[in-house]
C-alpha cells in the first residue's frame, strides 16, 4: 500500500485491531470466517453456474454482479470495486502490481472492445478461441477489481464466456500451482519508480487449450448448421512442469 489515504481505505475493511474482514456474520475469528466464506461462496457459485446464471454484457458491471452474487451473503462490500492499490509478491521475488483504481475505466473499455469484436464470443473462429480467452483473462486478472474473490468471480465469468463459444472449462484439469504460475506470468510486475513490465500469455494459452472442451450440441455462429462439437475424452491434469515455458528474466530490474 502507498499513501495515507490508500492505507486508511484498506484498513477500513477490517475489524479494528484484527486482520479479519468485516462481514455480515460479525465473525472476528479468521478461521471461522474463512470456512463460512468457502461454504457460502461455493453454494452461491454453483447456483449461479447451473441454475440461475448472472446475466450481463461481459463488462466490468457484469463482473461486479457476479461478485455480488457469490459473496454478497458474506461481505457488505461485495460487488464494489476497490479504490486502493493492490500488490502480490511472486515466488521469484518480483511483485505483481494489479491495475491502479484510476486505470479501471480504460481497462474496462479495452475488455468490452475485445469481447464485442467476436459478438461476445458467439462468433469467434475456433482457431482464435484459445488466444482470445487467454487475453480476456489477462485483462480481468490485471484489473483484479475486488479485495477478495477475484479468482472465483473470474472463473464464473470465463465459464459464461466459453459457453458462448461452444466450450466448457474444466478448471479441475489444471493444478493450482500451474494456474497460479500462468496467471502471474500474464500480469504486469513492478520494477521500481512506478514502472511496470507487461506480462505474456504463452502459459495461459497452454492452460486454456488443455482445460477447454467442446460441448456437444453447443454451437456458435461459425458452427451453426452442424450437429455440434463432439466431446473429448478424459484429460490428464496439467501440472506446472507441463507448461514448459521458461520463466521471465529481468536482469536489469530489481526485486521489491
Keywords:
single chain; 256 residues; alpha+beta; four-stranded antiparallel β-sheet; 6 strands; 7% strand; globular; disordered C terminus
Tell me, rounded to a whole number, the average pLDDT: 87
- Give the assembly state of these chains: single chain
| Structural class estimated from helices and strands | alpha+beta
Q: Give the name of the CATH architecture.
A: Orthogonal Bundle
Helix content: 40-55%
Largest beta sheet: what is the strand line-up?
Answer: 1-2-4-5
Total domains = 1
The number of helical segments is: 9
CATH fold-level name: Fic-like fold
Strand content: 5-15%
Distance between the termini: 13 Å
The general outline is: globular
Low-confidence stretches: 222-231, 250-256
Reading the helices and strands in chain order gives: HHHEEHHHEHEEHEH
What's the alpha carbon Rg, rounded to whole Å? 19 Å
- CATH class label: Mainly Alpha
CATH superfamily: Fido-like domain
Would you write up a description of this structure?
The protein is an alpha+beta fold. It has one domain: Fido-like domain (Fic-like fold), CATH 1.10.3290.10. Helices cover 43% and strands 7% of the residues. The strands form 2 sheets. The chain has a 4-stranded antiparallel beta sheet, with no helix packed on it. The longest helix is centred in the N-terminal third of the chain and has 21 residues. It is globular and about 50 Å long. The C terminus is likely disordered.
